[in-house]
Design brief:
Blueprint (H helix, E strand, L loop, with lengths): L2 H20 L12 H4 L3 H15 L7 H4 L3 H11 L1 H7 L47 E10 L5 H9 L6 E2 L25 E2 L7 E2 L8 H6 L2 H16 L4 H6 L2 E7 L4 H5 L10 H12 L5 E4 L5 H14 L5 E8 L5 H8 L24 E9 H6 L6 E10 L11 H14 L7 E5 L6 H15 L9 E4 L2 H4 L6 H15 L1 E2 L19 E3 L4 E2 L9 E7 L4 E9 L15 E7 L2 H16 L8 H10 L6 E7 L2 H12 L7 E5 L8 H16 L4 H17 L5 H5 L17 E2 L42 E2 L5 E2 L2 H11 L8
Helix pairs in contact: 1-3, 1-5, 9-12, 13-19, 16-17, 20-22, 23-24, 24-26
C-alpha cells in the first residue's frame, strides 16, 4: 500500500477520535478546519491528546495541537515523524493492510518520547542569516521601575531574594470591588484582584523636562515615567551633552494601548495620551535626530523594540539606540477583559511550569536599555554590561485561534537566531522564558525549546529555565525587557535566581531526556576563565509575533592606568534645584560607602561626573586627596558644612562665553594633566577649576584626564522630584498639582569681573593648617576670587 493510503488510514482514525469526544458525525468533520473551530477547547484538547496517545501507543502532548491545529496537518505530522512505528501498527506489507485499532485504555502511559512540534519549513524572519555573523550589540545603560522596586537594584534584590512582589490592588489605584467575582465568571466581572504594581506611579518632575505642571496631571503616566527612566538610562551609560552631540540617537518603545485617556476625558490634549508622543517625548526634549517609533505587538513589544534597535544600529541608521517598554494599569477594564478570556489567576500566583498553573497576574514595569554596536562602544570608552549576539522575530501564522501560540513558529525562530549568530545551544546555560503560567502556554513554549535544541545537543538537564513573571507578574508589553534586564543582572551578579511557585512540574511537558530544568532555587553562575557565558530570553505576543534574543556576558578589556594615582580628585555635581543637588550628594555617598561604587576607581568616578553628565544651574565641587576624603567632603557639602576644598554656586545664565577665561581653563587643564602627581600644583589647580565650574564654565574633561586612563562608569542617576500628579477622577486622595519646585527661569548674569590670569602656584608657596588640610596659597585664591567672583569657602 502506498503512503497516500496509509495517510488516509491515519485520517480516518483521527476523525473517529474527534467523533468520540465531540459526538460529531465523521462525514461532517472538515480535516482542514482548525480544531478550535470544530469545537475543541483547552480541556477537550488535553482529552484528545490522552485518547490519541492510548490509541496509537505514542505519548502525544497537548502542545502538539498548537503546531498542527487541523486533522490534515496532525495526520501529516504523525506520518512524517512516526512512519516506522505506524507502519508496524497497521501491519503494512506489499499486500493489503490489516487495520488494527487498539482499544482506548483508561490509564495514560508515562511519558517516554515527546511527540512535540518540529518545524517543517523555516518561516521568514526579520534578519536573514548571511555569510557573516552580525556584529554584537553592547548594552551600555539600563534603568527601570518594577513591581515593588524603584530601580534595577531593587528589582535584582527581589529576584535574588526570591521575593513575590504581587499584591492586592489598593483601592486608591482603582476600586475593583464592584467588578470582582470569586465564583463563576459573570459578564463585566473579574476574578483577579492582584497585580504587580510599581511604586510612585503618580510621581513626576515636570519642570525638569520643561513641562507645565497643569499639563502633567492629564499626561499619561507612561509618558512621565518613561521620560525619567530613559533619562536615567542615558546617565547610567555615562551620556551627557558631549556624548549626545557626538552620536545620532534613536528611540524605540514597546507599548500597548492605555486606558488613562478615559480617565482624563476632555481635560487632556492630543499629545498627552498618544503612543507616538510616548516615544517622541525624550527625543524632542534632547533634540535627538535618530529614528523614533512606538511598537505594539502585544506582549512581545519590548523585545521587538530591542530587535528593531539592533537592526538600526547595524544598518547605521543611528549610532546609539534607546530601547524601552512600558506597561501601567489604571482601570479595571483590562482585568475584566482578560478574566472573560480566562487568562487570569484567581489566587494571584503565577505558577509558571507548575501543574497548578491557572493563569497569569498582570504587572507593571517601565524598562529602558541603551544600546550601541560593540566596536563603537569599545572605541568610545563606554561601560558595557553585556552584549546581544543575536535576535530575531517571526509570526505564528494561522493557528487554533488568533491568540493561540504556535510551537512550530517558536522553534523555527529559535533555530534561525542560533544559526544566524552561530551559537550552539549546547553552550546556553540559562533561558528567561516567556513563562506566563498557563497550562498549555507553558507546555507549548517548553516543547518548542526542546524541538529547537534537538538538532544541536543531546545533553540533559543543563539549561536552567526561569520566569520573572513569578516575581513581578506579567508586564505585557514590557515583559520581555523585564526578562532581559534580569538576565543582564544575572551576568553581573554571577547568579541564576529562582523561579518561584514551582513545586511539581507541568505534566503536559515531557521533562525526561530534556536539556532543561526549572531552576527552583538560586544558584551560582560563575564565569569560566577565557569563556563568556550565554543566556537567552523569549517573548511571545498575543498578536502572534514572537521574539528571541541571545545575550553574552562581557569581560572588559584591560586598559592602561596611571602608574601613580593623581595627587587629588575633582568631583563635580549639579542639579536643576538645590534639593535635588543635596539628594545627588547623598546618593553618591551611599554608593561609595556601601553601594555599587565601593570598589570603583576614584579617577573614573571623577571623570564620569564631569564627562558623562549634563551640568545644570545648581552646582557644587570638591577637591579631595583620597577616597575617604572624597566621601567626607561630599558629606560636608550635603550637610551644608564649608571648608577650604568645597565650592558651590548658582549659574545665572546658560553658559559662560568669556573667551579669555575659556582659553585659560583649557591651558590650565593641559598643564595639570602633565603633572598629576605634583601635589601642591595639582591640588591648587583643581581648586581653581572647581571655582570656574561653579561659576558656569565648561571644563575640558578630555584635556584633564587624557593621560590618567580614566573611563566612564555606571554612577547613581538623577534624583527626580516626587511631586504627585493625577486626574481628579482617580486617586482622589491626590490633588491635580502639588509641590511646585523651584522655577527654572534664571536671572540675567551680572557684569563679569575683570579677567586676571592666575599662574600655577609653586610648591614652596604651600602650607598646611592646623587640622591637616592643605591651605591654598593666598595669592592664588585672591586671583581666583577676582576672576570668578566666588568666595573661597562655601556652604549649602
Amino acid at each position: 500500500m502506498g503512503d497516500i493510503d496509509m495517510e488516509q488510514c491515519i485520517e480516518w482514525d483521527l476523525k473517529d477520535q474527534v467523533h468520540q469526544l465531540l459526538k460529531i458525525a465523521t462525514n461532517k468533520i472538515d480535516i482542514y478546519e482548525n480544531l478550535v473551530d470544530i469545537g475543541f477547547d483547552s480541556i477537550s484538547l488535553t482529552q484528545l491528546a490522552k485518547s490519541l496517545s492510548a490509541h496509537f501507543g505514542l505519548e502525544l502532548l497537548p502542545a502538539v495541537f498548537f503546531g498542527y491545529p487541523t486533522i490534515e496537518k496532525l495526520g501529516a505530522y504523525l506520518w512524517q515523524e512516526h512512519r516506522t512505528f505506524l507502519q508496524d501498527i497497521y501491519r503494512v506489507s506489499n499486500e493489503e493492510p490489516v487495520l488494527n485499532t487498539p482499544n482506548v485504555v483508561e490509564a495514560t502511559p508515562q511519558p517516554t518520547v515527546a511527540a512535540v512540534a518540529k518545524p517543517q519549513a523555516m518561516p521568514a524572519i526579520s534578519v536573514v542569516p548571511g555569510t557573516t555573523i552580525p556584529e554584537p550589540i553592547a548594552i551600555i545603560g539600563m534603568s527601570g521601575r518594577f513591581a515593588g522596586a524603584r530601580d534595577i537594584e531593587g528589582m535584582w534584590a527581589a529576584l535574588a531574594g526570591g521575593h513575590d512582589a504581587i499584591t492586592e490592588i489598593p483601592q486608591e489605584r482603582f476600586d475593583w470591588r464592584p467588578y470582582y467575582s470569586m465564583g463563576n465568571m459573570e459578564a463585566g466581572k473579574t476574578n483577579c484582584k492582584w497585580s504587580g504594581l510599581v511604586p510612585g506611579i503618580e510621581e513626576f518632575d515636570p519642570l525638569f523636562f520643561e513641562i507645565p505642571p497643569k499639563q502633567a496631571a492629564t499626561m499619561d503616566p507612561r509618558q512621565r515615567l518613561l521620560l525619567q527612566e530613559a533619562w536615567k538610562a542615558l546617565e547610567d551609560a555615562g551620556y551627557g551633552a558631549e556624548q549626545l552631540k557626538a552620536n545620532k540617537t534613536g528611540m524605540y518603545v514597546g507599548a500597548e494601548e492605555s486606558t488613562y485617556a478615559g480617565l482624563v476625558g476632555n481635560e487632556g490634549n492630543l499629545t498627552g495620551n498618544n503612543n507616538a508622543i510616548l516615544a517622541a517625548r525624550l527625543s524632542y526634549f534632547l533634540n535627538l535626530s535618530g529614528a523614533n517609533m512606538a511598537i505594539n505587538t502585544a506582549c512581545s513589544s519590548g523585545l521587538v523594540a530591542v530587535h528593531q534597535a539592533c537592526l538600526s544600529l547595524r544598518h547605521a541608521e543611528c549610532d546609539t539606540a534607546i530601547a524601552a517598554a512600558v506597561n501601567l494599569l489604571f482601570t479595571p477594564e483590562p482585568y475584566i477583559a482578560m478574566s472573560q478570556a480566562g487568562m487570569l489567576s484567581p489566587n494571584g500566583k503565577c505558577y509558571s511550569f507548575d501543574k497548578r498553573a491557572n493563569g497569569m497576574v498582570p504587572g507593571e514595569a517601565v524598562t529602558v536599555v541603551v544600546l550601541k554596536r560593540l566596536s563603537k562602544a569599545i572605541a568610545d570608552g563606554d561601560a558595557i554590561y553585556a552584549t546581544i549576539v543575536g535576535s530575531g522575530l517571526n509570526y505564528d501564522g494561522k493557528t487554533n485561534g488568533i491568540t493561540a501560540p504556535s510551537g512550530i513558529a517558536q522553534a523555527a525562530l529559535l533555530q534561525s537566531v542560533y544559526d544566524q549568530c552561530r551559537v550552539n545551544p549546547a553552550n546556553i546555560d540559562y533561558i528567561v522564558t516567556h513563562g506566563t503560567g498557563t497550562p498549555l502556554g507553558d507546555a507549548v513554549e517548553i516543547s518548542a525549546l526542546q524541538d529547537a535544541f534537538k538538532p544541536y545537543t543531546n545533553q540533559q538537564s543543563y539549561c536552567a529555565l526561569t520566569s520573572s513573571k513569578t516575581n513581578f507578574g506579567h508586564t505585557l508589553a514590557a515583559s520581555g525587557m523585564v526578562s532581559l534586564i534580569g538576565l543582564v543582572q544575572s551576568f553581573q551578579h554571577d547568579l541564576i535566581p529562582a523561579s518561584l511557585h514551582c513545586a511539581e512540574e507541568n505534566n503536559h511537558v515531557n521533562w525526561n531526556n530534556s536539556p532543561f530544568y526549572v531552576n527552583k532555587a538560586s544558584k551560582p553562575w560563575l564565569p569560566v576563565p577565557g569563556k563568556e557565558r550565554l543566556g537567552a530570553v523569549s517573548a511571545f505576543g498575543m498578536s502572534g509575533t514572537n521574539a528571541h534574543l541571545v545575550l553574552q556576558s562581557y569581560t572588559p578589556l584591560s586598559m592602561p592606568r596611571e602608574k601613580q594615582p593623581p595627587a587629588a580628585y575633582l568631583l563635580v555635581l549639579s542639579a536643576k534645584s538645590s534639593a535635588a543637588l543635596k539628594d545627588k550628594l547623598t546618593d553618591m555617598v551611599q554608593a561609595m560607602e556601601s553601594g555599587r561604587l565601593v570598589q570603583a576607581n576614584l579617577t573614573d568616578i571623577a571623570y564620569t561626573l564631569l564627562a558623562g553628565r549634563h551640568h545644570f544651574r545648581y552646582r557644587c565641587a570638591a577637591v579631595a586627596s583620597t577616597r575617604e576624603d572624597a566621601i567626607h567632603q561630599l558629606k560636608q557639602l550635603a550637610n551644608g558644612v564649608s571648608n577650604l576644598h568645597l565650592f558651590q554656586g548658582e549659574v545665572l545664565n546658560d553658559s559662560r562665553n568669556q573667551s579669555t577665561i575659556k582659553t585659560y581653563i583649557n591651558n590650565l587643564a593641559a598643564q595639570l594633566n602633565q603633572s598629576p602627581a605634583n601635589g601642591q600644583v595639582y591640588e591648587e589647580g583643581l581648586a581653581i577649576l572647581a571655582g570656574y565650574y561653579c561659576q558656569g564654565y565648561e571644563l575640558p574633561a578630555g584635556l584633564l584626564y587624557a593621560t590618567l586612563g580614566a573611563q566612564r562608569i555606571h554612577l547613581p542617576t538623577y534624583p527626580f522630584a516626587r511631586e504627585k500628579y493625577w486626574v481628579k477622577a482617580s486617586l482622589a486622595n491626590l490633588p491635580v498639582v502639588v509641590l511646585t519646585p523651584e522655577p527654572i527661569e534664571v536671572p540675567k548674569a551680572p557684569k563679569p569681573p575683570e579677567v586676571i590670569e592666575p599662574p600655577i602656584a609653586s610648591p614652596e608657596k604651600k602650607a598646611t593648617n592646623g587640622n591637616g588640610h592643605a591651605k591654598t596659597n593666598q595669592y592664588l585664591i585672591a586671583l581666583l576670587c577676582s576672576v570668578t567672583g566666588l568666595p573661597r569657602r562655601s556652604s549649602m
